[in-house]
């Protein structure tokens, strides 16, 4: 089941820097990077994770029904 426009993988690492274009001349400046590990918890996805968390599993089922 899809709850958005695009199919989302079971896991994806997102980096804040990917949301911005590179500015010429600034590539060499050291900066702080923010990375988020995103797990798809739609019902039927990542079953190992949902088995470990009753709350996530319940939320997944609830969202699938509404």
What descriptive keywords fit this protein?
66 residues; alpha+beta; two-stranded antiparallel sheet; 2 helices; 2 strands; 27% helix; 15% strand; elongated
Describe this structure in words.
It is a single chain. By secondary structure, this protein is α+β, with helices and mostly antiparallel strands. 27% of the residues lie in helices and 15% in strands. A two-stranded antiparallel sheet has the order 1-2.
> Which class do the helix and strand fractions yield?
alpha+beta
Strand content: 15-25%
The helix content, as a percent range, equals 25-40%
Helix-strand pattern: EEHH
Unreliable spans are none
How far the N terminus sits from the C terminus, by CA atoms, comes to 12 Å
- Describe the largest sheet: 2 strands, antiparallel
Mass-distribution shape: elongated
* Helical run tally: 2
Tally the beta strands. Answer: 2
Any idea what the radius of gyration is?
Answer: 17 Å
Q: Can you list the strand order of the major beta sheet?
A: 1-2
Average pLDDT rating: 82
């Amino acid at each position: 089941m899809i709850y958005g426009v695009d199919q989302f993988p079971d896991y994806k690492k997102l980096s804040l820097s990917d949301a911005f274009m590179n500015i010429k001349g600034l590539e060499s400046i050291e900066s702080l990077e923010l990375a988020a590990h995103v797990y798809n918890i739609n019902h039927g996805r990542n079953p190992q994770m949902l088995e470990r968390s009753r709350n996530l599993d319940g939320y997944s089922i609830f969202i699938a029904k509404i």
